[in-house]
Design a protein that fits this description.
heterodimer, A: about 170 residues, mainly alpha, 7 helices, rod-shaped, B: about 170 residues, Rna Polymerase Sigma Factor, Chain: A, Arc Repressor Mutant, subunit A, 8 helices, about 70% helix, about 0% strand, globular
Chain lengths: ~170, ~170
Amino acid sequence: MILTCDRIEELLSPYLEGELGDEERRLVDLHLEECPDCRLLFAALNGTRAALRGFPELEISEGLRARLQAIPRKKKRLGAALDFLIRPALQPVFATAAVFMTLVSFYLFGPYKAAIDRSINRKIHHGYSQVEKLYVKAGSFRDRLEASTGSLVVSIKNLPIFGGDKDQIQQ
Amino acid sequence: MLVNAYAKRVFNLAYQFGGSYQEAEDMTQDIFLKLYGALSKYDVRRDFTAWLLTLARNHMIDVYRRTKWEKASRDEFDEHTLSAGESADPETGVDAAANRKIIWDGLNLLPPDIRMAVILRDIQDKSYEEIAEVMSIPIGTLKSRISRGRLQLAKILREKKGHDPDL
């Protein structure tokens, strides 16, 4: 059986690695003896492999070594800086914040935002009018308190113990 | 400890893959940053070197695809790589160095996955099983890629050197 040059190309790499069976190896040997092009390609393949194997392994620079050795320290520093966030004491705060944010998101993105806005408006106005009423009541109470205080002071001044007129009190 | 044990290997892979010393240093730093972040996900039943090389390989291919790394030219060959590994015979040494220069430049012409497979096999001398694990492909596919990569490089070498029977 004669192998074509294309088939030989496919077989050259396994041939080089010693992976071919006896029969295939014999056929490749035979072809290489007779075909100068494939012989040249095989020589180039050998040269390629030798060149690749000849690349030296380089040492890393001291600068790179220092940069690499600094990575865990940097990561540790960053981790330590954020450690306070995972303290158990802050868990209720995070839980509350989560609930609050959930409610806010329901409000902002839910379908009833306009209705909730109207309801809040009503509540605010209602609250405001209640405050106004209380304020007015407080004002009248203050007036009455002032009047009562005035008459109480006059009554005390007119007590006999302070040299006042007893009849005036009775009147 | 991780730096002493693995930095050289990762750096060399990045340098051989990308061809730029500066890029390889930055790439190694990025890969180690990823490594420290991913250590908690490491499955102790897996081989650590293979796991690290998988991480490195994925990162390099990602960067390559994102930034079109292949457009960047490789460093001048003799700047960092020519000095070591020379043959004692001056004539053979010059020839081998010339071949290495052609192959070094030629690596940039290989598609990323093929280039990675050739580097791991022929430069870093990894076994097919290790490379298949790192690249997450069957051994048959891997062998085919390595074969194609070597042939492509061999044809480049043949073109550059003409019909010299002593390639």
